[in-house]
Design brief:
One of its GO terms (molecular function) is glutathione transferase activity. The protein is α/β, with parallel strands linked by helices. Helices cover about 40% and strands about 10% of the residues. The model has no long low-confidence stretch (mean pLDDT about 95). Bound molecules: glutathione. Glutathione binds next to loops.
């Protein structure tokens, strides 16, 4: 099973199937409780990556458990190495089918399993980070940042929509296009947005409001993967990240923080993409490069 779902050569992402909510008091959906939920992720997956960054920044590591799948996905989908000690599952598909035996979509990460009702609560990736930010506040570490401040939400949501469509999903639309036209359309939109972001980040340290927010957390997973996988594997090669002085320094600034670099695994990222899409890379050879100096001084403090 792969991520191809072509409509006239265009890649279309499937709708999220499980969208139950977890709320602070359980008034809607299930209640936020420590130790109850298990988050399934791949270090390779950009959508899962954001959930790991937020969990780390908010100090929720002991509140929401994590299980990491093997980066190389085969015909049976994501595999949990050694089997999952909590759910007993070897493949993520078992959790999807235990929740809904008639499920016929792709078995995707990130998703959250409820250990009490023993079912998947959500694979709705945009909702997972905001849920951690707004419904798990009782369990945030002391001094945790507010990543989704009420007064900045309209601006964060606006930039997230552009970044999702043309950057986060834009690289997939380019990489998974089946025809020249849709590829070029996604390619042009991607680099137009990167130009806009380069300009914006030449003047300010963060995307919105002079502080780290959900907007930065959503952009980072795509930028950090850019030169290692999207530039080559997904043919997003007008420019590299390192060719954008401000975007490159911005990404290094974020990478310098533990929540970002401890959740960034280039080995998983490269092996996943190059070994899991045989229609794009039939040899499954994983490139050795590029050589990137992630710890070079970023100098972004001057913009504070
Ligand atoms: N839930 C979203 C986004 C999450 C997503 O695409 N995850 C990918 C990894 S980056 C995945 O798990 N793919 C599994 C598959 O295609 O079989 C979707 O269904 O498109």
């Amino acid at each position: 099973m792969d991520m191809l779902n072509p409509v006239a050569g265009r890649f279309v992402r499937q709708a999220n199937r499980f969208t139950e909510k977890i709320t602070a008091d359980g008034a809607e959906g299930l209640p936020a409780e420590p130790g109850r939920y298990r988050l399934f992720v791949s270090y390779a997956c950009p959508w899962a990556h954001r959930t790991l960054i937020v969990r780390h920044l908010l100090g929720l590591q002991d509140v929401i458990d994590v299980a990491v799948v093997d980066p190389v996905r085969d015909e049976a989908g994501w595999r949990i190495p050694g089997g999952d000690p909590v759910t007993g599952a070897t493949y993520l598909s078992e959790l999807y089918l235990a929740t809904d035996p008639s499920f016929e979509g792709r078995y995707t990460v990130p998703c959250i399993w409820d250990t009490v009702t023993r079912r998947l609560v959500t694979n709705d990736f945009p909702a997972i980070t905001t849920m951690m930010e707004t419904e798990f506040t009782a369990f945030h570490r002391a001094g945790a940042p507010d990543l989704y401040p009420a007064e900045l939400r309209p601006e964060i949501d606006e930039i997230n929509a552009l970044v999702y469509d043309t950057v986060n999903n834009g690289v997939y639309k380019a990489g998974f296009a089946r025809e020249q036209g849709p590829y070029e359309e996604a390619f042009d939109q991607l680099f137009a947005t990167l130009d806009t972001l380069e300009d914006r980040l030449s003047r300010q340290r963060y995307l919105v409001g002079g502080q780290l927010t959900e907007a930065d957390i959503r952009l980072y997973p795509t930028l950090v993967r850019f030169d290692s996988v999207y530039h080559g594997h997904f043919k997003c090669n007008l420019r590299r990240l390192v060719d954008y002085p401000h975007l490159w320094a911005y990404t290094r600034d974020l990478y310098s923080r533990p929540a970002f670099h401890e959740t960034t695994d280039f080995d998983h990222i490269k092996r996943h993409y190059y070994m899991t899409h045989p229609h794009i890379n039939p040899s499954r050879i994983v490139p050795k490069g590029p050589l990137l100096d992630w710890t070079a001084p970023h100098g972004r403090d001057r913009l504070d």
